[in-house]
Amino acid sequence: THFGYETVAKEEKAAKVAEVFHSVAGKYDVMNDLMSFGVHRLWKRYTIERAAAREGQKILDIAGGTGDLTAKFSKIVGSKGQVTLADINDSMIKVGRAKLVDSGVVGNVDFVQANAECLPFPDNHFDRITIAFGLRNVTEKEKALQSMYRILKPGGKLLVLEFSKPALPLLSKVYDIYSFSLLPAMGKVVANDSESYKYLAESIRMHPDQESLKGMMSEAGFDDVEYTNLTGGVVALHIGKKF
Ligand code: SAM
Is the ipTM above a cut-off of 0.85? Predict the structure, then answer.
């Protein structure tokens, strides 16, 4: 049946995502720097700026992976605040936890293994929620956005950092060549895993463009949704508020 097919497709996607991130966890940070020529650091720094978090706040970093955003938030919210890194994949959490502990980020950070589609936190709980390069891996994005809305405090904001649609046709072409040829080749050389990086390129291409994601966030309940293109729209930062 149609429904049977959908269930299988969803399970397949979830299994593929799990396989990819178990496989890349150990090499994830190196590959991130290589693949983005280090620019992911700037995209993340910009996200932190726009989050405008303050001391004492509660922050949730969904699909937090190896914890780049979590580490930055931990310094900002200080000992009176709390940062929760949530990720579905225990290999990524393990690598993330080890990295943060090594760099002295301890005390106000906790780690929760959770699916973005059904976040195990109380209503109106977090001042800021971030999901960086995570939403495109989530099978049921609408459900995930609704779940984020529920646990965000009124007055809080959600920041979604994700690959998006390059604004210029030429950039779009260059980017296609890069992601479908160069990316899997780099994955093969560095991580001996071209399949995972092929998946990555496909998931980027399938992800909703700027306007579609903006619509989905409004649909999930977020107010004042806006986005900023970064690196010509290769990446976009969407921000939604809860009034
Ligand atoms: N946020 C980190 C960063 O920007 O470096 C990690 C991004 S990594 C590309 C994507 C992460 O999303 C992985 O750690 C993966 O395990 C996680 N993920 C995938 N599907 C998820 C889901 N349904 N719920 C929560 N996390 C998920």
Answer: yes
